[in-house]
Design a protein that fits this description.
Layout (H helix, E strand, L loop, with lengths): L12 H30 L1 H4 L3 H15 L2 H9 L8 H34 L1 H4 L5 H19 L8 E2 L5 E2 L8 H36 L5 H40 L7 H15 L2 H4 L10 H42 L1
Antiparallel strand pairs: 1-2
Helix pairs in contact: 1-3, 1-4, 1-10, 3-5, 5-7, 5-8, 5-9, 8-9, 9-10
Length: 334
Amino acid sequence: MNNASCPRVSFDFSGRFLPPVYISVFIIGLAANGWGLKSLLHNWKKLGNINVFVLNLGLTDVLYLLTLPFLVVYYFMKSQWIFGDTFCKITRFCFNLNLYGSIGFLTCISVYRYLAIVHPVRAMGRITVTHSVTISVMVWLLVSVQSLPDMFYPKTFGNSTGQCFSTTSKMHVEDYLKYSLGRTLTGFCIPFLITLGCYGHMSVVLWTMKRTDKVQKQRSLKLLFILILLFSVCYIPYHVLKNLNLWSRVLSKQRMCCGWFNGVYVAHQISRGLVCLNSALNPLVYLHGNDDIPAQLRQLLQQARQMFNTFFRSNSAHVHVAQSAGDISQELTL
């Protein structure tokens, strides 16, 4: 660490990396969540009380996905925000609702699966849809309260068209780091430990109890794999690198420079792209409760392939007819 001039940070990297990611997540996520929510409503009674949390999980994804086109415009305009300070804060607020709402509802799903497998007698008949709805409302309120302070930090810089910070400006970065660490603890670490404990104990029970239903075991292990994928790819890298990047900004503000500043910034931007993937990966949660979805997906892909082949043959026929007509016209003019 030294007081020399800080190495240049590649701030333009986010403008090159994030727009393609946002466009892909918007298209895939909107299609996957729309299809998943439709399937969920179709199999509402079959899935049980856990479907309330899955429904809310899908709603958090859709809420965030609708803000992505505005962020794409923002980065295509070279980090010039034209939609006003209020909408910038709303956009960032929707991201926090999606991120911590997803973690919250995934934790609820984990606890419900844990009770159904480890304590089936105690849980039977005591957990109703009313309980699930009440818990969902509490998750929404808790996540909103946790995310609300973020709205009071300055998010834009410049006049009518300025930057729209995902965190805050340089002036308030010290206070924001403290807030970010607190939210990481309450919004990520505690739910993660709860989920880890539930599935750790559940895995032991599933492997040691021979009377466990084979289908139930497969569904639980499938959901465990999905949660490991979400946390390891989307959530853990984002929270670690976000706080490291904020710390580097604090050190830079204090004129204390390190060679790792640029590497942390680039890695943080990559983690921002990865964390938004949760909106496209969350529909995988539907797979754990509905065995028909993989078959429906294969059928959907087969239909799409048939439509493509029909379209290709139709275009080939039109081209052949057009060429034949051109040859005839040439013969008539000779």
